[in-house]
Write a structure and sequence with these properties.
Blueprint: H1 6-37, H2 39-45, E1 48-49, E2 52-53, H3 57-85, H4 88-135, H5 139-142, H6 144-155, H7 162-167, H8 172-175, H9 182-188, H10 192-237
Antiparallel strand pairs: 1-2
Amino acid sequence: MGVEGCTKCIKYLLFVFNFIFWLAGGIILGVALWLRHDSQTTNILYLQLGDKQAPNTFYVGIYILIAVGAVMMFVGFLGCYGAIQESQCLLGTFFTCLVILFACEVAAGIWGFVNKDQIAKDVKQFYDQAFQQALMGESEPNNGKAVVKTFHETLDCCGPDNAIGAITPLWRDDLCPKKDSLLKNLIESSSCHKKIDELFSGKLYLIGIAAIVVAVIMIFEMILSMVLCCGIRNSSVY
């Protein structure tokens, strides 16, 4: 005997929420794959300065997102199937998966909040080391000049800050993106430190919004799944 009345409405409401949750998992998976293969980040984070690799903290977060997106799609499907079948076992498993996933999301959010400034800081330190080597003529064995030029061309920037760029124009023609004139080069070139901050802060902001939306959906789903499970149990008594 199936559920009736308000419980039946909750059943279909849970199905709709789970379908949205499944879609959100697919979107997060797609965004994570896009971030993983984004030309700006891959050009920078695949660089190597001598024996030192560019910081990969950002990619750790991306791999976590990929895993979360895939698990969300599985859990969303499980919730949809459990709601339609009115299975207490599937709904209980779904609720348990949601609790674990929610706990992991909170832990990942705390990790991301703690490391949000560290990611850009590590990349800026990597850039500064390459920049110093390029200026001192130590770039050949350590590939410093190539690393700096990749940063400049990818982010359309020049130098660690505008002050250094203004007083040391001699290296600009060799390392920075070409402009129509030296004056235009001096005026329009942005600090690479600023560009690095903009690159990662924009992406982390997008990830943060997605995490909040998913967390709200998960809370509603946990409540609805428990209410539906109790409704199924009560309807089976009669």
